[in-house]
Amino acid sequence: MATVDTAGAEAPPPEELTITFFDVGQGDCTLIECGEGYEILVDCGSNRRGAGDRDRDDVAAFLEEHIEGDLDVLIVTHPDLDHVSYLAPGSGRTPAPSVVGDRHVGLALLSLDEAAYRESATGVRLMNWLAGAAAPGAVRFLTTADASAEDEPSDLFACGGASIHILAASEPSGSSDTSMQRNTPSIVLRIESHLAQPFTALLTGDATWETHRAILERYSAEFLDVDVLKVSHHGSRTSIPPAHLLPIDMPSVAGPHWPWLRATSPDYAIATCGHRGGYFLPRCEVTREVGSASSLASVGCHAVECGAPAEGDCETIGGELDDEGEWCGYATTRAVFTSQTNGDVRVRVRPEGWVVDFERGQLDAAACE
Ligand SMILES: [Zn+2]
Asked: How many structural domains compose the chain?
C-alpha cells in the first residue's frame, strides 16, 4: 500500500490534476491545474473564425477563479494568432487586458525566437506584455536541444505530482508549404501523473506530421502510448503524412494507418476547433482516422461535426455549404471529442482514477444503430 510521508519537509502530493481545453472557437487555450496552487497555461487565443462558447472575457473570468497568485508557467506552442491573441492585450477602441490580467508570469517557454512573434501586431503586443509580466531571464525560447530524454523529465518545471517531458520544440520543417512551416515548430508536451493511477496526456499544439515523425524517431512507442491525446492542429490535414511515407501494408490493416496514432494509441482524443469555422476543421478524414483507433474508449454514440471538401462523400448535416467545403456528421461510439461539438472538455485525474467531462453532446448508444 502506498504511504505518504507527512512528517517530511516535502509537501504532500496534490489530490487532483485537471486539464481544461477551453472552447474558444478556432484556437487553443488549455489550463493545467497541478494542485497546490500551481498552474500552467498552454496557449490562449482564438481567431474567431467559427465562434466558441468562451470569448476573451469568459476565459479571463475562469482564469481569475482558477489561478492562485502568479501564473507559474506559460507555454506558447508557436506564434499563430489563434494561440496567442488572448494572451496579448487587445488593441482598438476598447483595449482588453491579457486574459492573464496583471499576474506575474513565473516562467514563459516559447518556440522559435522573439523575431518570429514580432512578425504580427498581436505578436508585438504579446512580447511587450511578456517583457513586463515575466522577470528578465524568465522568458525562454526552446530549441530542438530542449527535447527531454525519455528517462529524464524537463527540469524547467513540474506539475504537482506530475512530470512533464518536452517532446518537441522549434522543429524545422522541410516542406515548402507555409502551413507546415508555421506549425511544425509547435511545442509538444507529455504529462505523466504520479497519482495512484498512471495517467499520461500529450498536448500537441499545431504539430504536423513532420513534428510527429521527429517525435517517433526520438522516443519509444511504449513511452508515447498515452491516455489522452490532443489531436494536432485542430484536426487539420497537416497531421496526415503523405501516402508514400506510410508503411506499405497499412491500408489493409484494420485501425489507424498513421504511425503517430498507432504509437500514441489514445483512450480519449480531443480536437479544438470553432463552430463551423471557415477552415472546416476538424477534417472528416482526420476525424475518421482518429476514430478508427481501437484503443479509444467506448463512450456511447455521439455525432462529431467535421469538414469535408465540397465534392466529398459525407453525410451533410445542414448548415453552410460553400465552394470550400461542407459540414458533415461523423457518428461514433468512440471517445473522439471536439470543442465545437462538446464545448469545454475537462480531464480530471484523481488518485482513484481519471475522467473526462464535457459540456454538451449526446451520448446515446441507440443513435448509432
Ligand atoms: Zn492553431
From this structure: 1
